[in-house]
């Protein structure tokens, strides 16, 4: 697998070889986006893995209670 520096070099070479006109502007834009992503990755390497789930808590049920949600319909109450 190619390193990030190799990928950046390859994209820059392809951009240099590609003519700039209406037909290739979208392709050049995609190459610029990939180049920006790779340069950002090179400057700030991502750390794989996550911290996992956080510590949860449990509330014990006591007594009798009624709860009502008030709000507009279809808003994720």
From TrEMBL:
<dbReference type="GO" id="GO:0005525">
    <property type="term" value="F:GTP binding"/>
</dbReference>
<protein>
    <submittedName>
        <fullName>Ribosome-interacting GTPase 1</fullName>
    </submittedName>
</protein>
<dbReference type="GO" id="GO:0003924">
    <property type="term" value="F:GTPase activity"/>
</dbReference>
<dbReference type="InterPro" id="IPR045001">
    <property type="entry name" value="DRG"/>
</dbReference>
């Amino acid at each position: 697998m190619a390193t990030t520096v190799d990928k950046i070099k390859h994209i820059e070479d392809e951009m240099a070889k590609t003519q700039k006109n209406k037909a290739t502007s979208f392709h050049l834009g995609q190459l610029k986006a990939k180049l920006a992503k790779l340069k950002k990755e090179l400057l700030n390497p991502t750390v794989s893995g996550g911290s996992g789930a956080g510590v949860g808590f449990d509330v014990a049920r006591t007594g009798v209670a009624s709860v009502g949600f008030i709000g507009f319909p279809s808003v994720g109450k």
